[in-house]
Amino acid sequence: MKIVIDLRIFGLESGGLGRYNQKLFENLIVLDDRNNQYILLFKEKPDDLPPLPDNFKIKVCNCHWYTLKEQIILPFVLSKLKPDLVHFTHFNVPLFYKGKFIVTIHDLIMSRFPSRGASTLNRVLFFLKYRLYNQIIKHAVKKSIKIIAVSKFTAQDIKDYFKLSEQEAKKIKVIYEGVTIPQATETKIDLLERFFLYIGNAYPHKNLKFLIKAFQEFLKKHPDFYLILVGNKDYFYQRLIKKISNKNIIFTGFVPDNQLSNYYQQATAYIFPSLYEGFGLPPLEAMAYNLPVLSSKAASLPEVLGQAALYFDPGDERDLLNKMELIVDDQNLRDKLKSAGQEQIKKYSWQKMAQKIIEFYRK
C-alpha cells in the first residue's frame, strides 16, 4: 500500500503539532515492517533527517498550511503521487482532494473558541477565514474514512459538535500522544530560587491573564516568588507583555529543549490554566521532569493527567490562589504529586502511538 503522510508542519519549533509529526516520523521509520511504501510530504526538507529505509521517500510541497495554495495546489500534488491512502495529521484537508484519507484531529479549539482575540486578522478577514475553516474541518470529518482523536474527550467532542450518528462515530479511533523523555542539559543555568513555571503559547484559551491575576494576589504573601512564562514571543505574547509591569513575572521567549530542563528541575511547580485542550502534552512533560503539576479541571486534562495533578477551577482565581498556597506549603503533597506523575507518564509513549497508527493504516 502506498501511503502519503502530511508532515508539512514539522519540528519542535512548530509547537505541539510539529512535535507530534516529528515523533510519528522518528518512530515510524523504525517500527514499520516494510510492507508499505511511504511518501513523506514536507514543506521543505529538514536538514537533520536520519537515513531513511528504502520504502520511504520524501516529497517537498511548498504549500503553507491554511492558504489558498494548500487548497488548490496540494490536491494536484497528491493526485500525481497516486496514493492508496493519505494521512493528514491536521484537519486542514484540501476540499478538492477526492482520494481516500484519514485525519488526525487534535482539538476543536477554533470551533469552540471562535474569537478574533485568537487571530491577527481584521474583522472581515477573520470572518472569511472562520467560514472557510468550518467548511474544511467539516469536510475532513465527513469525508475521511477514519479519524484519529488524541483523547476520549476529543473523540466525544467531534461526535457532539458534528452531530455524528453512532454508526458514523465508529470511524473515530482514540490514539494517545506520547511523552518526550527528558534530555540532559548541555549547560547548567542557575535560575531563581522560588518560582512557578508555565511553558506554552499565549493564545486566549490558554488563560494566562487568569494565571497572572491569581499570581499577583499570591505575591502579596510571597513577595520572593516569581512566575516564569516560557514561549516564543509572538503577537499573542507581545500583547500580554505590554500589559504586565511586574518584575516578578518573567517572559523568557523561546527556550530550546536541551535547556528546558533547567526550568523544570528548579521550579516549585508547573501551572497549566488552559480552558481547552485536546490532549494536554505540556503538563505531562512537566511530570516527566518530576515536577508537581497544578492544572485546570477542564476539557481533556482530567482524563490525561488522572490523579497526578492538583486541579483548580479555571474561572475561579481564589481557587487557584488556594492551590498555589497549598502546593508551596505542603512538601508531602509535592512529593505525592511527583510520584503520581512518574506513574502517569508511563501510560503515554510515542512508540506506542506510532505502532497503533501503523495498525490503523492496515485497517
UniProtKB/TrEMBL annotation:
Its domain of life?
A: Bacteria
Annotated InterPro entries: Glyco_trans_1, Glyco_trans_4-like_N
- Specify whether Mitochondrion is a keyword of the entry: no
Q: Note the CDD domains from the entry.
A: GT4_MtfB-like
**GO molecular function: any one?**
glycosyltransferase activity
Q: Which PANTHER family match?
A: GLYCOSYLTRANSFERASE WBBK-RELATED
Q: What is this protein called?
A: Glycosyl transferase family 1
